[in-house]
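Sample A.
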Amino acid sequence: MDLTFRSRMDELMDDPNMQFRLLQNAYKDINFCNKWLGGESITLNGVWELVKNDPNKSYTILDMGCGDGNMLLKLSHFLSKKGVSHTMKGIDLRDDVLTIARKKCKGLPHVTFHKMDILKADLDFECDILINTLTMHHFEEERIEAFLNRFVVLASIGVVINDLQRSKISYMLFKMFSFIFLRTHVAKHDGLVSISKGFRKAELLGLAKKIPNVSHKIRWKWAFRYVWVMDFNRHTE
């Protein structure tokens, strides 16, 4: 696998006609990975970095590309334990995925989900903090700049992006991990494709330079992730 450049290969889960049962099971595997490989905590800690200096404020949080809603569920529990008041919205383009999300977050009236192309989200979705977990790598190079600019328009305090590092080591280690721990062919296949569509730090730094007057922190995290925190209230590192 040549990982010099980002892959443009489609993932199996990109198929809008995938059987609902297969989709549900694939998300179970993905959530297992996020839990045990640190993916959840990266986003949780990134959000906390933006709210910890004013925990008494009530925050609106928007998840762009929310998938099955698992991250919003985890983040809601995390903020509640910290005593931080919040409301949340998740946006995704697929009805089947949102069906899973609404079921998962049933009983949380402060968490709602909406069907929409994330590049078309308007000012009705303005928020304090915008999160994006494992979604940016789905976009080709020519669309990512528009993707990020939309984030800056909608969020007033900051943005937390959590995505994959593209490297041969992460590719091979995930291959071994998935063989042992993952159950579904979909998650095994798409995990490898996702890594091949991931990023190197220099690429993220290049994107950050196109967003001026914002504090950017891009850090490597285990397991082979990057967290990119944009803070609109601070203009120096």
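Sample B, a different protein:
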Amino acid sequence: MAKDLYKQTFDLQWQKVAELESKDSQGKPIGLSAMFTGIIDHYLVIAGGANFPNGHPVFDKANKVFHSDVYVYDIQNGAFDLVAQGQLPIAQAYGATIKTENGLWLVGGKNENGDMNVVLELTLDRQLQVHTRQITTLPFTWSNGAADIFNNELYLFAGSWDGKAQAQMCRYSFSKSACEVTSIPGLPRVQFASTRIANKFYIFSGIAQTPNGTSHVLTDSYSFDFEQLNWQALSEITFSGKPFSVAGGSALALDDQHVLILGGVNKNVFDDALKQLTTLEGEELINFKKKYFAMSPEKFNFSRQQFIFNIPNNEWLTLNKRVPFYGGAGPLQTVLDQKFVYWLSGEIKAVERTPAIYRALIINKK
């Protein structure tokens, strides 16, 4: 059960530092979700992503647009300055980002043509020009999961494989260009929060996609040991005694004992929407969509809680303060750099993204 962080080990002091450069059809700033994000040296990179710059899919019949833009920000010494821009070879979003010694790996993803099976490396030269090259081609298309590298092997956790959600892990060998596939505990899931600490990988929550076609929000969590090759169930995510969702949210390792979890859809609201959108038909479905998508961000109630998962105690804690702005999902992208956490755009309700970029100074009170 999540408790107040009684010792107040951490405090996060948030402020808005910028807005994304992306614009809608009217030239107004518009946010993104599901971008590739990471840090190269002292530069924050935001690449790709998706949004609705031409209107709403229900009210305006507009399509989701995928992007290839790359934005490079200098974040050295507390700065936040856009210093370069570039392009990916193709528009894409909903993949995974892995930080490497030379740059970032962009794994899988999707665009308007479907899911992808390519792993790209993104690097910056001394003039801050963006360069990409293909690392490998996966044996299946993959999106909406998590990925990491251990002992020169690529691990893909859950997500959508060839368009179908899986409760499986791929241990990809570059020399063999093939996967060793093993099971992950729990239901097939997408859009879960995840992070790596030392030789373990953690997955939290997510959206279940069951074989019979139904979907619902998950509140279970697990860790995977890269050396022992086994899984361990973690305590269920709860808040005020009830199961709590961080699906579509983000996880960051604050140190070797604490994981910070931010954002996530509201379990009750989202579970009801998933049920109605998959069971209603005809005029009832149309009317529900109009009502649902017209709701305010307050009604969507994306999580503003700041969760801390204490690894040694297998315990969920919350900071006393919530983030001082709308919660996020979509999935939300966050990045940790030394003493700062960056909250990068994301949805504040279904379809609607914020262009705002927030930064929090981490106060460690140990």
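Observation for Sample B: The chain has a mean pLDDT of 95.
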